[in-house]
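Name: Homoserine O-acetyltransferase
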Amino acid sequence: MPIKVKQNLPARDILENENIFVMTDTRAMTQDIRPLKVLVLNLMPTKIVTETQILRKLSNTPLQIEVEFLQTVTYQSQHTDESHLNEFYKTFDDVKDDYYDGLVITGAPLDFVDYEDVDYWDEICEIMEWSKKHVHCTFHLCWGAFAGLYYHYGIRKRDRIPKLSGIYEHKLLNKKSPLFRGFDDVFYAPQSRATEVTREQILNEPELELMAESDIAGVTIVKSKDSRQLFVLCHLEYDADTLKLEYERDKAKGMNPEVPYNYFPDDDPTKEPVVNWRSAGQLLWTNWINYYVYQTTPYDIKEVENE
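Structure predicted for Homoserine O-acetyltransferase:
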């Protein structure tokens, strides 16, 4: 939450230059507060796991956030009980006339599938187009980020073999950005994907800003310059055992996966992983909600349509 100070306090300018949100007493007297509305398009097969991971990140803020979950109708989940979906999920027809402060589009296990071959691609495109006039800021995650970069900017993914799996060191390219408030100069983050985009693709698009990258994992966080779109290719929301469970699943399928990089102590899968990304993950999601949603969304959410 912002700190409130007198209008002319000398420290105000210093703090604001450090990206610390300072609210003057004049503004505070006229401020109205309402709950933020966030919609989560959950494309993961393990929906309950993903729900929990995202809600955990959104919950660490004093702001009141109303979260709704969205499912596709052109593809029926095979891994989540239908009663759960019927009770807790909406369809696009249910929300198409509504407005939201934030939208999260999750990943999906579709690394080697062309976008146009995805069963629900047309529906995803309809939702992303709708978001331009009905959502203040969208957080695209992993496959959702690749899909968003392709739909909005025509940036194509390419295969990455072997699969990128493990914990990688990343560096900030814009340390003063509010998105990285509280971050160290480098941070660790889980990666789990077999696709990538290049830094040249991002830098060649004038409407995009490359925010964070890794010497090994490459492009990791991208933002539109108008701050309405955020594309995150890493998984700072992952639990301690998520990569372990993925590794064991792939082994059981006979896929002979590589041991996730820098994840198990001594690269020994019998040892419990040590989490070194949780604080960065919390900062990323909290900063998104605070600086890119709460601080800038219109009080009358329907005004999003005119932004």
